């Protein structure tokens, strides 16, 4: 749950403090001041909100910032001024009031020039939260990394609508009596923000989202079972357990999954578990985490079978993921 949101406001002319604030709430960084200006002052208004972190950020001097890999999805919207950026081996690009910069979890990330007059609205989205939200929208596991388009059109349509939602949440959270402080409403707003981003940006699942048909009573039962599996993938579910969660018979649940998800409930659970195992291995420390430990946690009792399924899905062995 979201819990009580505690906005953070920092105003500073100390470069090390500015770096520390960005590192604490967003990502580790190295800052190079490109055009030193006497009396420069940075202001960072940050709203940590569970899987989403929002920031209204102004550095006050022309800077270049190297972040490395972010590990999260991120959108930078210049509310004023411009920002030049690139990620990985892509060509440099420029973000302004009509076109936001969209960053992936992987790939070295550089803000080549964050101009002194550029005020950024920054939106950090936890990678697992985004993928889980997409899986709920599709009602099936997300089997490959979601690659969002590098730019988001803010001039009209869903991009402009999503930006208005982000700004509304930022303004509301600054108030002491904010609906974001309510655990139920705040959670729904957070989910709406992630859902809106998935609907507004380009990615490989957009066609499936756009063509997804409305659910009837049967898919709601499928959705309940799928949500239970995503919430507790380590739980030793059986088809009977899942049918009880969904409130339908075993036969009905199995038919529903085949019709609307294209696989059996247990195959769906296996895919969810593979995804969680991948996350733990990718971000785990080899000194503290072992492949066997992760495999057993998610119900893979035969390590050879686990390794074969893992390689088929991710193109590398579990040990390779953990090592790198």
Report what the structure shows:
The chain has helices at 15-25, 127-138, 157-173, 183-200, 206-211, 217-231, 239-246, 250-260, 265-283, 291-297, 303-314, 318-323, and strands spanning 8-12, 30-35, 42-49, 52-58, 62-68, 72-80, 83-87, 93-95, 99-103, 109-114, 119-126, 151-153. The protein is α+β, with helices and mostly antiparallel strands and 324 residues long. It has two domains: 8-200, Jelly Rolls, CATH 2.60.120; 217-323, Homeodomain-like (Arc Repressor Mutant, subunit A), CATH 1.10.10. The protein has a seven-stranded antiparallel beta sheet, with helices on both faces. A hairpin with a 2-residue loop joins strand 3 (42-49) and strand 4 (52-58). The model is unreliable at 213-218 (pLDDT under 50).
Q: Describe the strand arrangement of the main beta sheet, using strand numbers.
A: 1-3-4-11-6-9-12
* Radius of gyration from the alpha-carbon trace, in angstroms: 22 Å
What is the helix fraction of residues, given as a range?
40-55%
Order of helices and strands: EHEEEEEEEEEEHEHHHHHHHHHH
Distance between the ends: 31 Å
Number of helices: 12
CATH fold-level assignment of the largest domain: Jelly Rolls
Structural class: alpha+beta
Q: Biggest sheet: strands, sense, closure?
A: 7 strands, antiparallel
- Classified in CATH, the superfamily of the largest domain is Jelly Rolls
User: On the 0-100 scale, what is the average pLDDT?
Assistant: 86
Top CATH class of the largest domain: Mainly Beta
């Amino acid at each position: 749950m979201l819990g009580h949101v505690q906005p953070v406001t920092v105003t500073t002319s100390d470069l090390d403090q500015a770096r520390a604030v960005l590192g604490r709430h967003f990502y580790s960084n190295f800052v190079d001041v490109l055009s030193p200006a006497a009396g420069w002052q940075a202001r960072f208004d940050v709203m940590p909100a569970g899987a989403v972190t929002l920031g209204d950020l102004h550095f006050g001097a022309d800077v270049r910032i190297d972040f490395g890999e972010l590990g999260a999805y991120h959108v930078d919207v210049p509310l004023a001024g411009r920002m030049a950026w690139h990620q990985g081996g892509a060509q440099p690009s420029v973000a302004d009031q009509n076109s936001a910069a969209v960053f992936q979890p992987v790939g070295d990330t550089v803000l080549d020039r964050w101009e002194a007059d550029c005020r950024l609205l920054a939106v950090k989205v936890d990678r697992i939260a985004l993928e889980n939200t997409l899986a709920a929208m599709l009602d099936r596991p997300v089997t490959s990394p979601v690659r969002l388009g590098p730019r988001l059109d803010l001039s009209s349509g869903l991009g402009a609508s999503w930006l208005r939602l982000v700004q509304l949440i930022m303004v509301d959270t600054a108030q002491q009596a904010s609906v974001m402080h309510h655990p139920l409403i705040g959670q729904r707003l957070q989910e709406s923000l992630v859902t809106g981003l998935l609907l507004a940006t380009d990615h490989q699942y957009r066609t499936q989202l756009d063509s997804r048909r409305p659910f009837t009573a049967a898919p709601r039962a499928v959705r309940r079972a799928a949500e239970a599996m995503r919430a507790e993938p380590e739980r030793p579910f059986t088809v009977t357990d899942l049918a009880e969660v969904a409130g339908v018979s075993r036969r009905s649940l199995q038919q529903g999954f085949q019709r609307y998800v294209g696989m059996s409930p247990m195959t769906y659970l296996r895919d969810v578990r593979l995804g969680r195992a991948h996350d733990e291995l990718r971000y785990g420390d080899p000194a503290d985490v072992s492949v066997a430990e992760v495999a057993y946690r998610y119900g893979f009792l035969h390590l050879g079978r686990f390794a074969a399924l893992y390689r088929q899905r991710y193109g590398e062995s579990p040990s390779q993921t953990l090592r790198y």
